[in-house]
Amino acid sequence: MTDSANTAPAQDHVLIFDTTLRDGEQSPGATMTHDEKLEIAEMLDDMGVDIIEAGFPIASEGDFNAVKEIAERSKNSVICGLSRANFKDIDRCFEAVKHAAQPRIHTFIGTSPLHRAIPNLSKDEMAEKIHETVTHARNLCDNVQWSPMDALRTEHDYLFRVIEIAIKAGATTINIPDTVGYTIPRESADLIAKIRENVPGADEVIFATHCHNDLGMATANSLAAVEAGARQIECTINGLGERAGNTALEEVVMALKVRNDTMPYRTGIDTTKIMGLSRRVAAVSGFNVQFNKAIVGKNAFAHESGIHQDGMLKNAETFEIMRPEDVGIAGTSLPLGKHSGRAALRSKMTELGFDLADNQLNDLFVRFKELADRKKEVFDDDIIALVQVEAGQA
Ligand code: KIV
Ligand code: ZN
């Protein structure tokens, strides 16, 4: 499902806005080539991402061309470009996104005291600028997203005032960014709830949550915002993004799927495409995924200890809350190491085509433990070599 302008999604539908190609690429060193961006955009579209933020068209000729071509090739997703709060940026953004079947202009300005000090604008001057720029964007495009950057550190009365101005000027989505990853889940939820209670016209727009991960709480903060009424989550593949990154798409999508019992919301994401995208984004950005990263880390569905392996062999639900196949991974892995037990070794031997009697397995197990004490991980070839040595000695 997409969010064509002014149409509210079903109450339980959470729109997924992917900004891997914009906020993700702003991560120092993560620059992608034109062709890589097109490839990732195609994969995101195919996966069911509702809105793709394809870039920041005024930033460079290359970014403009990438956003334009992504817009031309888009199939189902809304294609969005970012622009600062000035007419030149907004015009350039529209020039790029207008080629999409469903274009969106995203314009923003920093509203917190620290951010207001940079352009040295008074509150009234900034309010006027918001009115002018959102009106201008809306005259070009009927799908306009507005963001008060650093919303979580903006005075509430001022935040409510400028959100109302943006809504009256025609914004269809209001994004609430935790730009510096400062908030905590309770605060994230409270702010969305207060905005919905206090801002006239709040019922006519979609609220988005955009969290950074500086305190490791981006996923929790995004989900808390959804529980308080936000219906768009802004996120990136592998949590790529400025500093400690953005909310990870795979985490919020799988949390909503796995904990649908307590968070009854759905997304349109085909979760079986998650792993493919994760690997591709890691490859093109050059940012490896940490082994223990939730959902997409190498160890997310791997179990080494004997107790866990035994449990997994009897019933996968013992130690896994989701199926690896649901995120595009072929299956659970039971790597052998010094913590592994007999059950896993027997299962490995069967998988490798060896039918060992109990006494043979017991002998092998002793030798395997000796080896595992010396090696971090014991591979299939190591085990085969152990069996062959054993057979040679017999
Ligand atoms: O983090 C942020 O505030 C942003 C805005 C441009 C939405 O990325
Ligand atoms: Zn951001």
Automatic annotation (TrEMBL):
Which top EC class is given?
transferase
Q: Where does Mn(2+) bind?
A: 23, 210, 212, 246
Q: Does the keyword Cytoplasm apply?
A: yes
Pyruvate carboxyltransferase domain mapped to chain residues: 14-275
UniProt GO cellular component terms? cytosol
An MF annotation (GO) of this entry: acetyl-CoA C-acetyltransferase activity
Pathway it acts in?
Amino-acid biosynthesis; L-leucine biosynthesis; L-leucine from 3-methyl-2-oxobutanoate: step 1/4
Which keywords does this chain's UniProt record carry? Acyltransferase, Amino-acid biosynthesis, Branched-chain amino acid biosynthesis, Cytoplasm, Leucine biosynthesis, Manganese, Metal-binding, Transferase
Q: Which reaction does it catalyse?
A: 3-methyl-2-oxobutanoate + acetyl-CoA + H2O = (2S)-2-isopropylmalate + CoA + H(+)
EC number, UniProt record = 2.3.3.13
Q: Name one GO biological process term.
A: L-leucine biosynthetic process
Q: Which cofactor does it need?
A: Mn(2+)
> Does the keyword section mention Zinc?
no
Subunit composition and interactions: Homodimer.
Function of the protein? Catalyzes the condensation of the acetyl group of acetyl-CoA with 3-methyl-2-oxobutanoate (2-ketoisovalerate) to form 3-carboxy-3-hydroxy-4-methylpentanoate (2-isopropylmalate).
Family the entry assigns: Belongs to the alpha-IPM synthase/homocitrate synthase family. LeuA type 1 subfamily.
Name this protein carries in UniProt: 2-isopropylmalate synthase
Organism of provenance: Thalassovita mediterranea
Span covered, complete protein? 1 to 394 of 529
